[in-house]
Give the backbone structure.
Amino acid sequence: MKNFNELNQRQLRVGEQVRQIISECLLKNFIPDPTLIDVSITISMVKMSRDLKIAYVYFLPLGGNDCEEINEALNSNRFFFQKKIGKKIKTKFTPKVIFHLDDSFIEADKINNLLANSKIN
């Protein structure tokens, strides 16, 4: 997938709309899965494919707990999210949603811990 900075304006705009819709569904507990009820999940970014048919949704649960379980629950309920997206955005096709764990925060934390290590100084 391309670097986030190389996406065109339309990909960024539709990606932000998808991010808002998914965030709203999670915030208001619209999802019928008990694993996702009252769980704080941050949707950090959405990268759209060039043809806007695929939405790669990057998320991180608060505290980084139960990442695999939440990833499975989100991907198993992706058709629910696609239905909500299809009703709210005006594109020719409803994008297929694929959830991925956003490990950039975890990697940044590892780097900060390494830099704070007294052995490095």
